[in-house]
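# step 3/5: fold
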Amino acid sequence: MAKKPQYRLQTLFDIREKEKKTAEDTYAQKKRLVIEAENTLKEMQEKHREMISFREQKKLEYAEKIREGGMKINEINANDRHIGRLKEEEVAYLGEIDKQKEVVKAAEKEAQTAMNEMLEATKSFKALEKHKEKWQKEVKREQMLKEEDALEDVAQAQYFAQLKKNRVEEK
């Protein structure tokens, strides 16, 4: 049996396959970063809601103490300042949330770029893979033709040998 020819673009095929795998891994990593950034954002937003809830609870608590009449003016002022500081902390935390939103947007943009690169690498690989499949079919077809020719030659040789034998026997 004849040795099967090697695909002439095998090196390029291997390179494209590796590029595709690398692009897929990069995309998966970028997508994980997006998910992590979104989870952090959700946690931050939940903490902000808790801060608001805590401030509202303190306001109600202080208002109840005032209604009961057990607070002096300086305690009322201190409580008002405390509520003000809590509100300032909420506003400052909103700034942190906005920064995290930007982190999420940047991560999404990087993930989109990685996805485009992955799609391009996959497209390149698939084109070369299709070429290799066609080449393999052509090689098989050529081998079958060679085998058919060889079998035909054997059959013809046997026929002529038999014909020659019959002629020798007739004489």
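# step 4/5: annotate
The mean pLDDT is 91.
# step 5/5: archive (pending)
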